[in-house]
# Entry
Amino acid sequence: MKDRHEIVLAGSGGQGLIVCGMMLGEAAILEGKNVVQSQSYGIASRGGLSKAEVIIDKQEIMFQQVQKPDIVLVLTEEAMSMYAANAAESLIFYDTTLVKVREGKNYYGFPFTEMGRELGHPGTANMVALGVMCQMTGLVKQESLEAVINQRFTGPAVAMNVNALNRGVELAHLQ
# Structure
């Protein structure tokens, strides 16, 4: 794994991308890495554009905004239209349930929302996506993400989210 990663998670409000960005950052901190996480969302918290940016680096982070993302997760067609131009230099993970299939060496489409539905809760699509993305890129270890899930959630939500994360890791192995 390289020392620095700039990640963008983009989609629609309510898809859990902000939480996903925070959890990714927390997992990286557990591994002793430096992290900056920021977020922005449209005027409508549900349905408007939502974006989390995460920088993970082994060194001190001087500039705290993503300048050139090397990993992008998009969960809506609107978000894809914003970041498709990055495909030449960025790995783009996207939800084939909600976004048109793209061709190219840096596009990785998976049915995140469909998998969430199959697991009994479409809202876990973000965890499925996080599992795929981290397994394929080595951003953070699965164990670190599971530890964050155990800290952040309680009751049945823990098992539900760990299960979704594991499903994402399995999907990545099929790629």
In short: The first helix runs from residue 17 to 30. Helices lie at 17-30, 77-83, 112-118, 125-137, 142-152, 156-174. The two ends are 19 Å apart (CA to CA). The mean pLDDT is 92.
